[in-house]
From TrEMBL:
<dbReference type="GO" id="GO:0051537">
    <property type="term" value="F:2 iron, 2 sulfur cluster binding"/>
</dbReference>
<keyword id="KW-0408">Iron</keyword>
<keyword id="KW-0479">Metal-binding</keyword>
<dbReference type="GO" id="GO:0046872">
    <property type="term" value="F:metal ion binding"/>
</dbReference>
<dbReference type="Pfam" id="PF09360">
    <property type="entry name" value="zf-CDGSH"/>
</dbReference>
<dbReference type="InterPro" id="IPR018967">
    <property type="entry name" value="FeS-contain_CDGSH-typ"/>
</dbReference>
<feature type="domain" description="Iron-binding zinc finger CDGSH type">
    <location>
        <begin position="2"/>
        <end position="42"/>
    </location>
</feature>
<dbReference type="GO" id="GO:0005737">
    <property type="term" value="C:cytoplasm"/>
</dbReference>
<keyword id="KW-0411">Iron-sulfur</keyword>
<protein>
    <recommendedName>
        <fullName>Iron-binding zinc finger CDGSH type domain-containing protein</fullName>
    </recommendedName>
</protein>
<keyword id="KW-0001">2Fe-2S</keyword>
<dbReference type="InterPro" id="IPR042216">
    <property type="entry name" value="MitoNEET_CISD"/>
</dbReference>
Length: 42
């Protein structure tokens, strides 16, 4: 999968299944690394 970011750069992933990050907490943005799960809920 290939994604073009806002600044015009292109990132690719060769994985079979990918998820796009919508929370912007991922260390691998734009790919989701489940960083959103670390947030404590109150």
């Amino acid at each position: 999968m290939e994604v073009e970011l806002e600044d015009g750069t292109t990132v690719t992933s060769d994985r079979f299944r990918v998820a796009l990050c919508t929370c912007r907490r991922s260390r691998r943005y734009p790919w989701c690394d489940t960083s959103h799960r670390d947030r404590t809920q109150g």
